[in-house]
Amino acid sequence: MGRQVRVHEVYAGRVVQGAGALALVPDELDRLGARRVLVVAAPSSAAAARELTQALGERHAATFGRPVQHTPVEVTARALEAAREARADALVAIGGGSAIGLAKALAIRTGMPQVAVPTTYAGSEATPVLGETEHGVKTTRRDPALAPGTVVYDPELTLSMPHGLTLTSALNALAHAVEALWDEQASAATRAYAVEAADGVLTALPLVLDDLSDVGARARLQEAAWLAGACLAQARMGLHHQLAHALGGTYGLPHAELHALLLAHVLRYDLPAAPDAAARLTRVAGGDPVAAVAALAARHAGPTTLGALGLPRTALREVAERVAAAPYPNPRPVVADEVEELLLGAW
Ligand code: NAD
Fold it and tell me: Which residues form the Fe-containing alcohol dehydrogenase-like C-terminal domain (predicted)?
C-alpha cells in the first residue's frame, strides 16, 4: 500500500467573532502594535469603514476605497502608493474577497500585518492564496505570509447583503466544503470543518433567505463560511472550482453566481464516485444533497443558467476540453464528453 500522509495547516492565527465585533478591531490593532492604519474598504462597506476610522482616531492613516475583483496589479500599485504616502504600518480590509485580496497583495509587498473583516461568504480571509490579474491574465500564488493573521467576523456587517449576493456567496462557500469532503488527502480536521460548514449553510441559508435581517441565522451562516474558507485553504479543489475558474477567467462571468448555478450539476456528476462524501452530505442535508442544493440555487432571482449569464453554447466544448486536460484531483475521472453533458445541463 502506498504512503498516505496528510498535512493539516491552519492560517488565520486569531479569529474574533460575534455581533458587534467590528468595535474590537482597534484592540486587535493594538495587539499588533499598529500606529498608522490603512483601511481598505469596499464601497459597500463605507459606513463600517467610517465607524472604524472614527474609533481609530489618530491611528487612522488613510482609507483606500476602490478595491476591484481579481486584484488587478495597477489597482494594487495605486493602493501601495497611498500606503507609502500615509506611512502606514498595518492594514485592515473590510469587504468581500476583492477588498481582502487587495490587502493581501499589499501585505505581501510590504510585510505589513493585516486584520481582515469579511462582509461576504467567499472565504478569502481564511486562505494563504492570492489571485492577481495583469494584462487580463490571472495568476494565483500561495504563501503563508498572504494569510491575514487576524480575522474579525461581525455578522451585522452581512445584513446589507441583498438576497442574490447572500444566496450566491453562501453557495460559493458550500462549494469549498463539498470539494474538501471528496478530497482523499484532506485531513480529519478538514473533514470535520467541511461537515460543519455544509450543515451550517444548508441549515442557516434557508432561514436567512426567508428573513435577511435574522442576525442569529446570519451568524451561523458566517461561521459556516469561515470553516468553508478554511477548507479552501487546506484541501485540494476539484472539478467544481476548475469549471468556475475556467468560465470566470475566460468568459468574465461573475464568481459567486457561477459557483451557485454549477454546484448541483457537479454534485450530480461526482457524488456517485464519492460515497463517503455522499453519505456525510446526505446526513447533513437530511435527504438527497443534489436536490437540496438545486432547490437553494433555484431561489435565485437572477440568472440560474450559463445561457442566461450570457455564455454562448459553442463555449461548452472548449471549457470541457480545457478542464479535462488540466491536472487536479476529482472523485470521478474528468472526461471531456461527460463534462460537456454536465455543462449542457447547466446551460
Ligand atoms: P466582492 O468582494 O467582489 O464583492 C461583490 C460585491 O458585493 C461588491 O460590489 C461588494 O462591494 C459587494 N458587497 C460585499 N459585501 C457586501 C455586503 N455585506 N453588503 C452589500 N454588498 C456587499 O466578491 P466576493 O465574492 O466576496 O469575492 C470575490 C473575489 O474574491 C474574487 O476576486 C475572487 O477571486 C476572490 N476570492 C479569493 C479567494 C482566495 O482564497 N484567494 C477566495 C474567495 C474569493
Answer: 167-345
Cβ atoms 97, 120 nearer than 8 A: yes
pLDDT tens column, 205-234:
999 999 999 999 999 999 999 999 999 999
pLDDT of 77-127, one tens digit each? Answer: 999 999 999 999 999 999 999 999 999 999 999 999 999 999 999 999 999
Pair (46, 151) in one structural domain: yes
- The CA 4 to ligand 1 mean position distance, Å, reads 36
Shared domain for 152 and 199, answered yes or no, is no
Domain of 208: which CATH number?
1.20.1090.10
Q: Which residues pair with 145 in a beta bridge?
A: none
CA of 43, closest atom in ligand 1: 11
Read off the pTM: 0.96
Whole-number Å distance, alpha carbon 299 to ligand 1 midpoint, is 20
Question: Which of 158, 178, 201 finishes a domain?
Answer: 158
Residues 222 and 147 in one domain: no
Each residue's pLDDT tens digit, 325-342: 999 999 999 999 999 999
CA distance 92 to 113: 9
Of 133, 161, 209, the closest CA to residue 42 belongs to 161
CA-nearest residue for atom 42, ligand 1, is 124
Instruction: Report residue 322: phi and psi, to 5°.
Output: -65, -45
Residues 197 and 134 placed together within one structural domain of the fold: no
Judge if the beta carbon of residue 161 lies within 6 A of ligand 1.
yes
Query: 46 lies in which domain range?
Result: 14-158
The pLDDT assigned to 252 comes to 81
